[in-house]
Amino acid sequence: MNVVVNKADSSDLRDLVVLTCEFLEDVASQAGMAGFVPDDQKIREKLPEFLDMPDYAVFVARSPKGHPFGFCTVFRMPVQIREEPYAILDRLYVRRDYRRRQIGRLLVEEAKRFTRSCKGKRLQATLPAFFVMEEALAFFRAERFYETGGRKHKIAV
């Protein structure tokens, strides 16, 4: 399957709003809150702010013809005393019909590149504390993220 991953810009806004709503619905469903409806208007209003932040990146995976498969968001964390620089993989979402086709891996690779470009040494993802996301957990394990403290998953870049 051919997949193109690019850093998002304002031309991706419409698709990103849809993907973000799908992501939130998916997480809510796994949390036992089926029927949750995200506020797409609020997402549409707030999302452009993130696209222009220098320490924040949104990557979109698409078919060569432009069909969106998924997205990820990543941002550089401010460095604390005696801590190495790192980035947070804030959101990672691949549409259900396109999972297990290496799209998530490609999005994580872009997040790693972003982390390295910010002089980061590791990429970290944190899963929810109050419910288990089995597919996400399996994905991070397969991608060789190591668990630290249960919810946090890290990988050196």
List keywords for this structure.
157 residues; alpha+beta; 7-stranded mixed sheet; GNAT_dom; acyltransferase activity, transferring groups other than amino-acyl groups; Acyl_CoA_acyltransferase; GNAT family N-acetyltransferase
Number of helices: 4
Mean of all residue-level pLDDT scores: 92
Structural class: alpha+beta
Poorly predicted runs: none
The helix fraction, in percent, is 25-40%
Radius of gyration: 15 Å
Number of E-type strands = 7
| Largest beta-sheet details | 7 strands, mixed
Please give the order of strands in the largest beta sheet: 1-2-3-4-5-7-6
SSE succession: EHHEEEHEHEE
Coarse shape: globular
Distance between the termini: 26 Å
Strand content: 25-35%
GO molecular function: acyltransferase activity, transferring groups other than amino-acyl groups
Pfam families: Acetyltransf_1
InterPro entries: Acyl_CoA_acyltransferase, GNAT_dom
Protein name: GNAT family N-acetyltransferase
Structure description:
One of its GO terms (molecular function) is acyltransferase activity, transferring groups other than amino-acyl groups. Residues 3-157 form the N-acetyltransferase domain. This is GNAT family N-acetyltransferase. InterPro entries: Acyl_CoA_acyltransferase, GNAT_dom. There is one protein chain. The chain is an alpha+beta fold. It is built from four helices and seven strands, in the order βααβββαβαββ. A seven-stranded mixed beta sheet has the order 1-2-3-4-5-7-6, with helices on both faces. α3 (103-117) links the parallel β4 (86-94) and β5. The longest helix has 18 residues, at 13-30. The protein starts with a strand and ends with a strand.
